[in-house]
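Late entry, evening session. Most of the bench is empty. Finally got around to the prediction I had been postponing all week. Sequence below, unchanged from the version circulated by S.P.
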Amino acid sequence: MTARILLTFLLAFGLGFAQEHDADTHAADEAHAEATHGEDHGAGHGEEHGGEHDESLSGVIMHHIVNAPLESEFAKQWGISKAVLMMLISAAVLILLFGIAMRASRLKGAPRGITNALEAVVVYIRDEVAYPAMGEKWGRKLTPFLCTLFFFILACNLMGMIPGSYTATSNLNVTATLALITLALIIIGGIIGQGLGGYIAHMAGPPGTPAAIVPLVFVIEVLSLFVKPIALTIRLGANMTAGHIVILVMLSFIFVFKSVWMGLLSVPLAVAITILEIIVAFIQAYVFTLLSAIFIGMGLHADH
């Protein structure tokens, strides 16, 4: 966190000062180039400059929603993108963290420190998320999945805040895959919990539904079944992308107004958004886990 804030200050003031200091020289160079090469070169220079601006803007946005490739030949050969790399790192960090916590619990007995904190989160997810949404029987069985979902998303969110890293959960391919896993559990859990016939019957509406509207209700239920993972995908991806875009907008004020003094406003705003992103990282991990539990519980129990 401290490194991110310091980097923000250094980049904002350093680049802003450099741009302000070189503004007159740059303008003079452009004027001299136009006088030397004529109007055609000036038009070409304008198009080139505009293209670079568009490419930069689209590059920042696309960087967060698609697979950003790595330069390594090994990574290209095995299809390892920045999102895949960050997910592997996040998974390794979680395995190491929980391994240390389990070892400490076995050696010291009563949980303390990080072990106690992790246990509190697991118990909360079990008692306040899984049990209310699915009941005790299915909640106990699916608590490991919900905990894995929560900690994995949280780790990816937080790893993406490290300067120079990549937010895997802002990539729609990643969020869509997580949502499809939830969709699979919704369908499989519903078939196991209600039986194939019962699961199909509950999609035709509750008992007593008029036969004339059963086809309409069935179509609506099928559509709603696939809307759920779409909502999960967009909610997580958009929220994790938005923070980075807002920080970019805040810092861009320095270059739009071409004044280093604008950093006195834009940098504190960027730091505030960075702090807010930490809260958002926890909230979005929790919301994705909570909604997944609710959706799976709706499939398990016909009365839902």
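Two things to note before I forget:
Residues 2-23+62-300 form one domain.
The two ends are 42 Å apart (CA to CA).
Will write this up properly tomorrow.
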